[in-house]
Amino acid sequence: MQEFDLFVIGAGSGGVRCARIAAQNGANVAIVERQHWGGTCVNLGCVPKKLMVYASEMGQSLKDAPSYGWDVHINGHDWAHFIEAKDKEIARLNGVYVSLLKRAGVTSFTGNARLKAGNIIEITPSPLEPDAPTLIVKAKKIVLATGSTPVRLDIPGAEHALVSDDVFSLKERPQHIAIIGSGYIGLEFASIFNNLGSDVELVYRQNLPLRGFDTDLREHMHALIDMKGIVQHVETTPKKIEKTDAGLELTLSTGKVLKVDAVLMATGRRPAIDELGLEEAGIETDKGAVKTDSSFATSVPSIYAIGDITNQYNLTPTAIAEGHLLAEALFNPQGRDWSFETTPKAVFFSPPMASVGLTEQEAVKQHDLEIYSSQFTPMAQTLPGRPGKTFMKLIVDARSGVLLGAHMIGPDAPEIIQMLAIAVTASLTKAELDRTLSLHPTSAEEFVTMRTPDRKVPRAKASTSSGEAP
Ligand SMILES: Cc1cc2nc3c(=O)[nH]c(=O)nc-3n(C[C@H](O)[C@H](O)[C@H](O)COP(=O)(O)OP(=O)(O)OC[C@H]3O[C@@H](n4cnc5c(N)ncnc54)[C@H](O)[C@@H]3O)c2cc1C
Ligand SMILES: NC(=O)c1ccc[n+]([C@@H]2O[C@H](COP(=O)([O-])OP(=O)(O)OC[C@H]3O[C@@H](n4cnc5c(N)ncnc54)[C@H](O)[C@@H]3O)[C@@H](O)[C@H]2O)c1
């Protein structure tokens, strides 16, 4: 039986980084992947999604071009052409991941991994290599990095709905789509399909989208969704989906029936633990996620878990950082550190939205606040007369002047907030932003030119209610 120092299950964002760093630090490492090298981010997440965002935003640029003097004739968007080009790029990236692991000296297996007692792993064939033999291997330490999988609501006809995994291989773009859920995935696909010309209906439980983000941003997003012509069914849940000769009928809690070509359930993800044999290995879970301590150890000390399987951050950079930290903690204790609490976040809507640090609603529980904000029409939209304002907001501790949070909705928000994340992580003060000269003409310069607070908000008295149903 082959034996390794470290065996990683799942070659996604976290697993690949962990395996690579461990091997580069001298460990004898193996990794197993059942479906696609690079995991969700590369194959069914961040990368193909961002390519779709680019595809969808090209159309907007073409529509704006005549007001800048271009003579443009748009003959429509070829979805099949785009999917083929996207698949080619993803296949190239799969190869990059395989060779990264090879170059680091990691042994790669394909198949479904399942834990057996005593740090034994059984690898059975998966569709990636159906004729591969079943193997049994052993490892001193094991890392669970199997990610997460989309959640489908338990309503009649749920099997007729798409989940995000399906959207990346659709043969045709739906002309009329209903999207359930107003989190990251719901909003990003609502924008992509709307930009490409589909009629989009967004169905969600709250009165504002993107629960957990700053309320001012959520209100601006709500207005932008309306402005784009996406129909919002707020405070509404889906009841059933029926297949008809013409397509699908989605019945809502309001009694309304939406006749559409497709329904997308964007209703969250859950850790991929079903076929891992956690019980046999003695690994504890909590609400469907693998329980870990602050050093990523599970309830079995030689088995660790990183990334979406722990259901903590559910983002690629955090999965990568966890994999890196774990590999260094195990094989090179002088490793580096990351500030997880100031992880920046973005929603790739058009225009995009991004945030770092505390929202006003979080910050006011602990601090007296000064709130600064700015709203303006992005210059690129002036000649075409395209509506939609950029909104920026800074949250500052009134006593120390420390920058607690920065939030933006508007073109380039993720690029700008990534840089402001340095200021928030370093606990820079508003005075240091004030000392910084503008780079003109940009949108980002507004973040260093906001001089007067809009509001001063005293620290809130402790409250037992979170104010909004989950
Ligand atoms: C549509 C979408 C868009 C997203 N966009 C962004 C974004 O813009 N920015 C961002 O930061 N994050 C984004 N995410 C989230 C991001 O993709 C995940 O947080 C990240 O991929 C998690 O990494 P991971 O290593 O935990 O798991 P994954 O990347 O999911 O990797 C897990 C791997 O394990 C394999 N596996 C599972 N079980 C087994 C088994 N038993 N045996 C062998 N292999 C197994 C899977 O096939 C998979 O390849 C997006 C996600 C989705 C779905
Ligand atoms: N840009 C990014 O970084 C990015 C993009 C996509 C996904 N992701 C990651 O993937 C995760 C999953 O994305 P998501 O959008 O599916 O999840 P989410 O948690 O962001 O949103 C889920 C949505 O489904 C709704 N919902 C959940 N249960 C429901 C029910 N029973 N009935 C009606 N509505 C229900 C929620 O109210 C919410 O609107 C995200 O949390 C994020 O971590 C990140």
TrEMBL record:
UniProt KW Ubl conjugation keyword? no
Family according to the record: Belongs to the class-I pyridine nucleotide-disulfide oxidoreductase family.
- The active-site annotation reads H440 (proton acceptor)
Report the record's disulfide bonds: C41-C46
Binding positions for FAD per the UniProt entry: K50, T146, G147, S148, D308
> Which EC class is this protein assigned?
oxidoreductase
NCBIfam families in the record, alphabetically?
A: PRK06116.1
User: What does the cofactor section's free text say about binding?
Assistant: Binds 1 FAD per subunit.
Enzyme Commission number: 1.8.1.7
Which Gene Ontology biological process is one annotated for this entry?
cellular response to oxidative stress
What residues does the Pyridine nucleotide-disulphide oxidoreductase dimerisation domain cover? 343-450
Name by which UniProt lists this protein: Glutathione-disulfide reductase
Positions annotated to bind NAD(+): G181, S182, G183, Y184, I185, G186, L187, E188, G268
Could you list this entry's UniProt keywords, alphabetically sorted.
Answer: Disulfide bond, FAD, Flavoprotein, NAD, Nucleotide-binding, Oxidoreductase, Redox-active center
Q: Which cofactor does it need?
A: FAD
| Entry superkingdom | Bacteria
Q: Where does this protein come from, organism-wise?
A: Aristophania vespae
| Molecular function in Gene Ontology | flavin adenine dinucleotide binding; glutathione-disulfide reductase (NADPH) activity
Q: Where is this region: Disordered?
A: 451-470
PANTHER family the record matches: GLUTATHIONE REDUCTASE (PTHR42737)
